[in-house]
Amino acid sequence: MDLSRPGPLLxxxxxxxxxxxxxxxxxxxPQLLSAGGLVYVPGSSGAPLPFMAELTRDPELxxxxxxxxxxxxxxxxxxxxxxxxxxxxTGLFMQPGLTQAQREQRFRALPMSYSGFVRHxxxxxxxxxxxxxxxxxxxxxxxxxxxxxxxxPVALRKSxxxxxxxxxxxxxxxxxxxxxxxxxxxVCEVDSPLPVYETPVDAGTEAIARHIAPLVDDGSVLQAGLxxxxxxxxRLLRDRRRLRxxxxxxxxxxxxxxxxxxxxxDFAHTTCVLVGSTGFYDAVRHxxxxxxxxxxxxxxxxxxxxxxxxxxxxxxxxxxLFGQCNLERSNGAAVSGPGGAPxxxxxxxxxxxxCSIVALHACHKGGSRIxxxxxxxxxxxxxxxxxxxVVTEFGVARLQGASVHERAEALIEIAAPEYRAExxxxxxxxxxxx
Length: 434
Fold this sequence. Notes:
Blueprint: E1 22-23, E2 38-41, H1 49-55, E3 66-69, E4 88-91, H2 99-103, E5 107-109, H3 114-124, E6 127-134, E7 142-144, H4 152-158, E8 159-167, E9 178-180, E10 186-190, H5 203-212, E11 221-223, H6 228-236, E12 244-250, H7 253-259, E13 269-274, H8 278-283, E14 290-292, H9 295-298, H10 301-305, E15 310-315, E16 318-320, E17 325-326, E18 329-330, E19 333-334, H11 341-350, E20 355-359, E21 363-364, E22 367-368, E23 370-371, E24 389-392, E25 395-398, H12 404-413, H13 417-431
Parallel strand pairs: 1-10, 2-3, 2-6, 3-4, 4-5, 6-8, 8-10, 11-12, 11-15, 12-13, 13-14, 15-20, 16-23, 20-24
Antiparallel strand pairs: 7-9, 16-17, 18-19, 21-22, 24-25
Helix pairs in contact: 5-6, 6-7, 12-13
């Protein structure tokens, strides 16, 4: 089986039991929920916003509902105010506004990486209704998943019924996965703008990117995702040549690098999601060497293990002096999830000629982001074993091959100067107990 090949999503269900979808109006979509049945709702640029709007217009529509979603913080705000108190929503990412819902167990955050969630879907989840946003069908009756494939290939294979939102705003991408129109049970035509993602870059972020850039050589395979640091980094890499991209998410920087001649145009640049500016969604249609594939491919250990010179760049909320990285909790509050970071960090760490980089600002309003040891209110999303370099605006801590003491000293040197003496004192106390 070729894990890397795009194209039609075939054999999503027994063909004899399929027929062309029944057209329905948006207001009728909530009626498709069945008692006790699980509804799968994708996120990122594939979020079916008209479906969620109809579902939450009256809390009674979601009484006792079970919803599984991959909504992403910063791209897909998830507001449960319009959801009935008896409903249970499960997701991969916490969001700040869901704290009370999680305490009341109305929101269930799954502590899984993307590859782990693929396995969870494959082995443990039965979906009653999968909601998928697609392009209008082409002359062959194929609907493109466009800029967002995510977990949809697996979800469609596991679903009993399928509702397609045929969105006029969803671009048809030749390198994306496509689904036969006649495989949908229900079809609703919509015209809903895709989420726009644009990130301003500040001076501190630019300084971090300047420290990362020398770690990315010509010919590297780069994973950088979304955020301020990836945005700034892409701009600094325009003078590279033969760069190859393999990432969980790609944005406008993809086309900026292509225009600068920095990309290897013979390589199939791969992602599971595209999110960017309005112009990006239109322009990316014309970028030929692009594949938008499912996470069962992009994050699969076999896919990643084949990559040499794989440079993974991920962000963190805090890093301790052992090199453990917290990506999920801020001041004790859950604000995000692991996403694909554990998959890519592990791959970068073990790639021949590659590396795993974690980037973060040295400070936040409450103090230093370089801390003596992750406390009881933090989570070690990335272990110290999967990080080669930690980067702040003050430099690079090179952890690969360093002893415990050498790691601590390197990390202290990239902390904000006003916290270094305090960190050294804390490390002396820790070291005395080693």
